[in-house]
Design a protein that fits this description.
The protein is α/β, with parallel strands linked by helices. It has a six-stranded parallel beta sheet. It has a two-stranded antiparallel ribbon with strand order 6-7. It has a single domain, classed as Glycoside hydrolase/deacetylase (TIM Barrel, Alpha-Beta Barrel). The mean pLDDT is about 95. Helix 3 runs parallel beside helix 5, helix 4 crosses helix 5 and helix 7 packs across helix 8. It contains eight helices and eight strands.
């Protein structure tokens, strides 16, 4: 999906789908090879089992089920990374699983445990300030507080639901301005008009967006123009 070959020339980390919301063994191997060719950090992108809904629909699962889903998917991608001579660097849950874990302490801890038990050196990516990054901190993982370039925020720091008309930012310049403010000031303007304080360790750009390539280019250029050095978390 999208223009992965060109986007991977711009970003510093790639979250690779592990088959549950997108991807299959062949596309996983190709994505890993593409990331290694561009010298960018590889992360597993585990999801709820929802190919039809692209992993963006909530499914009621127990913490134990979440643990098993995450272990299974990380293991699958890690196998391809190792086979190609690379190292798995991070884990970022996808879509509904990510958003559910941002608010649910039990779910967040089960995901953090799965990551830690596979490899305590992995970095756990989670929504900035969320229960997921708190769980990662608690269990002893390095965590990355993630902010979004192409999404709007609620005043509680959560992302606006994709079911809402104002959930997505499609204008490159608007997205770049949001990112610059998040990085330099640690703040974002919510849809309610209030500023929200957020820590920004890593910036998410959705590769399946219609303007993903131009968005990535504009954001990188804007950050560099501000004298901000860009590198992977590791």
């Amino acid at each position: 999906m999208g223009n992965d070959e060109e986007i991977m020339k711009i970003v510093t980390s790639a979250n690779i789908a592990c088959g549950f919301h997108a991807g299959d063994p062949t596309t996983m191997r190709r994505a890993v090879k593409l990331a290694l060719a561009n010298d960018i950090a590889i992360g597993a992108h585990p999801s709820l089992p929802d190919l039809v809904g692209f992993g963006r629909r909530n499914i009621a699962i127990s913490p134990e089920e979440a643990y098993d889903l995450v272990v299974y998917q990380i293991g699958a991608l890690a196998g391809f990374v190792r086979a190609e001579g690379g190292i798995l660097r991070h884990v970022k849950p996808h879509g509904a699983l990510y958003n559910m874990a941002a608010a649910d302490k039990g779910l967040a801890m089960s995901i953090a445990k799965a990551v830690y038990r596979i490899d305590p050196q992995l970095v756990l990516f989670g929504l900035s300030g969320s229960e997921l990054v708190k769980a990662g901190d608690q269990i002893g993982l390095q965590v990355a507080h993630e902010v979004f370039a192409d999404r709007t925020y609620q005043e509680n720091g959560m992302l606006t639901s994709r079911q809402e008309a104002d959930s997505l930012i499609t204008d490159d310049q608007q997205a770049a301005k949001q990112v610059i403010r998040l990085v330099k000031e640690g703040k974002v303007r919510s849809v309610q008009g209030k500023d929200v304080e957020l820590r920004a360790d890593t910036i998410c750009i959705h590769g399946d967006g219609a303007q993903a390539l131009s968005l990535a280019q504009t954001i990188r250029q804007s950050l560099e123009a501000q004298g901000i050095r860009i590198q992977s978390i590791n």
